[in-house]
Design brief:
117 residues, three-stranded antiparallel sheet, alpha+beta, single chain
Amino acid sequence: MLLPTVTPTTSKGADLLLDLRDLLLSHGHPGKCVSCFFGLLGDLRQPGALKPLRHWLEQHLEVEVSAGGREIDVLPVRLDEAADLESFCHQAIKTVRFDRSFRDRRIQLRFRYKSAA
């Protein structure tokens, strides 16, 4: 159970929780799952209640780095290192730009589910 003690404080948080539940049950868009996670994080009295969900997302999602329609790298999803979705995305962009060396100037990032190996 990923969300047993999650109790949002607002109706927006309740909507996010229902959206997230639907996304998880339907194997929905991974980026929307992460967006709901960060939205809920700011709407809880006890953000620690999302720890099981955070671990699940980190185990099952990754960030694909692609250029010219081909995958060139994969980054792990580490949600505990960011306060919100925007900071997570900025950190991923910094990692790609400053810690990697790619010839392509136009690089795309997207969340995806890890493939079963």
